[in-house]
Specification:
single chain; 7-stranded antiparallel β-sheet; binds S-adenosylmethionine; Rossmann fold
Amino acid sequence: MIKEKICKYFEQDIALAVISGLKKGADCEFSKVTVRPFTSNDGVKYQFEYTVKAQVKHKNVSADELVGEIADLLENYFTQCMVYGRENDYHINCFNGKIKAKTMPPSKKVSIRAHNKKKEYILNEGEDIDFLIYLGVMTKDGKVVKAKYNKFRQINKYLELLKTSLDVLPADRPLKIVDFGCGKAYLTFALYYYVVKILGRKADITGLDLKEDVIDYCNKVARDLGYDSLEFQKGDIKDYDRTQDVDMVIMLHACDNATDEGIVQSLRFNAKIIIAVPCCQHEFFRQIGNENLQPMLQFGILKERFSALATDSLRAQLLKALGFDVSVMEFIDTEHTPKNIAIRAIRSGGFNRKEYRAYEAFRDYLHLTPYIERRMKEENILK
Ligand SMILES: C[S@@+](CC[C@H](N)C(=O)[O-])C[C@H]1O[C@@H](n2cnc3c(N)ncnc32)[C@H](O)[C@@H]1O
């Protein structure tokens, strides 16, 4: 379980990892373990150096074994792991199987490239992928249609994002997943294909959208493909009511406050995972203000971009305050769409006052009254 939780921190080249902080009463002869990559005839390997009093012992492991070895150390002996990577440094804390990680800018030079293999997608050209063929992304013989290549990459990038999230969901029962603002639902079909056909999980998946014609079309596609546990409903996110719990909620490019409504709904039905790629964040453009920021806010385009970033920062921070482990990452290259920031939130604890204060401080600094906060208060999610 710890392995699944920490693998995302090693999806980058690393310079060094340091595992330390012995657990109370741990029966362990070594006090610290450092891990460094090195190049061998068999490709990149990792040397584990165990500090035993004034001496050290070594062991080499393959790239495939790296995360499992570190997870074992955290499971049995240690409480902390510091990862120094090419994209980020992470300070990971592990207590009673729970992982909390702080993300920091990279601080060490990474000279060994371990992640340089040709990119293997989850869905690959040449495979017979029924929904991609039906939706015209692939030809019948598995070739990606040139004009749809960006869509194909976007679908794969989305599935990568899901891949590292789904492990936290229960494995012993069917999953419930909702996709708010599904539109033509390329990504909802991809989600179904991945979860049900590739992973072999039972899942009840619903796509919701305002547009009736789109919903009718998507239901027809689902029927034609025989995707039995995928359904589409017409409706507004804020009116969507479901008495059962939902495991995961997805909102991809749900415009402006529709993303906020989706987040509020996710909290109402106790979603364990929320994935949002927001767009058209207009709300703060009208509100944002701070004399010290005038050099930036005086220019419309900068104000617009900053307002969008501030919106997503506050959404992410509020989710942290509500006990989620939040990551914010690039969804797809900006060359294809400027709407490329994904917020992934995984429920991991309860209300955190310190994080909420950080939210309030940022909100007040910019003189904002966020819609999402008002809605959370109306729904008694926030006091
Ligand atoms: C830009 S499209 C994105 C479609 C799809 N998720 C994707 O990423 O390809 C946004 C969709 O959200 C839907 N939408 C916007 N506000 C909504 C709301 N309040 N309730 C339900 N759907 C909404 C729109 O009808 C539209 O189809």
